[in-house]
Amino acid sequence: MTDDAMETAILELLAKRRPGATICPSDAARHVAGDDPDAWRPRMDEARAAAARLVERGEVVVTQKGEPTDPALARGPIRIRRT
């Protein structure tokens, strides 16, 4: 799995949702690794890192408790939405 695959998964999932809708990084991890928790859970850090790269490029916004946040500083659950 490449970094590009996780970024692509995030963008594909967001494209299928209405404007303003969010996804969880676990949605992208499942999209790439499948529904088995033993396969997707280890990829959560990769999903969060991919989201951070997309934030840097201005393609998505990461939120926590509904507010935009820096993904490098966020601890706990985050959501990803299109810009």
Automatic annotation (TrEMBL):
InterPro entries, per the entry: DUF3253, WH-like_DNA-bd_sf, WH_DNA-bd_sf
Q: What is this protein called?
A: S-adenosylmethionine tRNA ribosyltransferase
Q: Which organism is it from?
A: Agrococcus citreus
The record lists the lineage as: Bacteria, Bacillati, Actinomycetota, Actinomycetes, Micrococcales
